[in-house]
Amino acid sequence: HPMVFPSSRVHFPKTSRRLPQALIIGVRKCGTRALLEMLYLHPRIQKAGGEVHFFDRDENYLKGLEWYRKKMPHSFRGQITIEKSPSYFVSPEVPERVRAMNASIKLLLIVREPVTRAISDYTQLRSHAATAILPLAERESSGSGASAQPPKMPSQSLLYAKLQAAHGYDNALLGGSGAGAKETKTKLSAAGRRQTGAGAAAGGTMTTTTPSPLASAAQMAAKSFEELAIFPNGTVNEAYRPLSISMYHVHLHRWLEVFPREQLLVVNGDRLIEDPVSQLRRIEAFLGIEHRVKSEHFYFNETKGFYCLRYDNGDRCLRETKGRKHPHVDPVVVSRLRRFFAEYNQRFYELVGEDLGWPE
Ligand code: A3P
Questions:
Q1: How many angstroms separate the alpha carbon of residue 322 from the centre of ligand 1?
Q2: Among the four 198, 256, 303, 360, which has the fewest Cβ within 10 Å?
Q3: Active site located where (predicted)?
């Protein structure tokens, strides 16, 4: 077989690609990658390479289960295949689709204190915006009078649409109220048409008064977390994606309408950072595999400020996009948001049957 397995994995006679028996369904920025890589230290675990996005993207889902299975790694009988796509958690159509594949699948949900998660999400979105959007926007505005044009290049539009969907820009930018990615795409094209219309009305010449969506996105990307999370009148911008994703009970509720509570394990992402082994022990028990991931599999890397992993074939830290430095956020805003989330957190605790003790 072309795949090379560490010696500790050679216990079984045959390998094949199998549909996952467990999924990490989210939540994004709570340590989903760390969790998967840590579980992979276990000889009974195989993992899908990237995020497959089978259940949440129609273009993938329509390809069918065979397509999905072929995305899975080879595994021995008795091993557990795990896939992680954090957007599963927040996509309404996903739980039912997962059940249709395997009603007894095991679900792992990793969570962090919601305000920390929101800031981490903001940090990631801003860094994506800084590397992708800003140079494009600068190029665009330096052109002669080109700043009024909507993005022409498909790649730019796509980039913009993605960024907008992720950031929940739609309300601020386009005057809508929804924060869903699907709505966002529709609104984006509507906005594109509006702008083209305005240009046509002005005799086919674009005026420089209308900022392009791309430049606006860049501007939005430059906004602080405080500005995006709290309106000038002091109310919380509940439609801001980094905040709405942190309303865990809303999303979890949909899953628990489809799956019994026992089929889902809630992993404490803040504890996974401090003490990976204790969280992994719970997961091993939940997955019904023996306790094999131990403290000798980890060492604390002072430079990174996180635990790194010892595999059979060497040491490895997660990439630098995992464990970013967060911007300073005004403590008044943090307390305001913690108070805002207190009620939602209670509802989440009730759903999971456990108090995670997040600060209020
Ligand atoms: P930050 O970068 O905000 O610190 P995800 O993989 O779901 O995107 O989650 C990323 C988060 O995983 C990071 O968020 C980091 O806090 C957390 N994490 C947990 N254990 C980690 C580890 N051992 N190394 C790096 N990041 C880890």
A1: 5
A2: 303
A3: 29 (for sulfotransferase activity)
29 assigned to a ligand binding site: yes
pLDDT of residue 208: 38
Domain borders along the chain are: 7-111+260-329, 118-238
What pLDDT, on the 0 to 100 scale, is given for residue 53? 98
Q: Tokens 């309303």 — which residue?
A: 247
The set of catalytic residues is 29
Residues with CB under 6 A from ligand 1: 28-34, 86, 120, 123, 272-273, 306-307, 318, 322-324
Cα–Cα distances in angstroms (integers) from residue 124 to residues 28, 36, 50, 156, 323, in the given order: 10, 19, 18, 19, 10
Rounded mean pLDDT of 212-217?
Answer: 60
Regarding beta strands 314-316 and 306-311, do their DSSP bridges make them parallel or antiparallel, or are they unpaired?
antiparallel
The 10 Å CB-count burial string (b at 16+, else e) for 149-185 is bbbeeeebbebbbebbbbbbbbbbbbebeebbbeebe
Q: pTM here?
A: 0.79
Alpha carbon separation from 76 to 19, 209, 298 (Å, rounded): 12, 62, 25
Confidence of residue 354 (pLDDT cuts 50, 70, 90): very high
Q: What is the pLDDT of residue 217?
A: 60
CA distance 56 to 161: 17
Rounded distance between C-alpha atoms, residue 336 and residue 340, angstroms: 6
Q: How confident is the model at residue 161 (pLDDT cuts 50, 70, 90)?
A: low
* Strand 45-47 with 80-84, pairing: parallel
The per-residue pLDDT for 145 is 36
CATH fold of 7-111+260-329, please?
Answer: Rossmann fold (3.40.50)
Residue 177 pLDDT: 32
At residue 347 the predicted structure's pLDDT band, cuts being 50, 70 and 90, is very high
| Selection from 292, 307, 317, 296 nearest residue 8 by Cα | 292
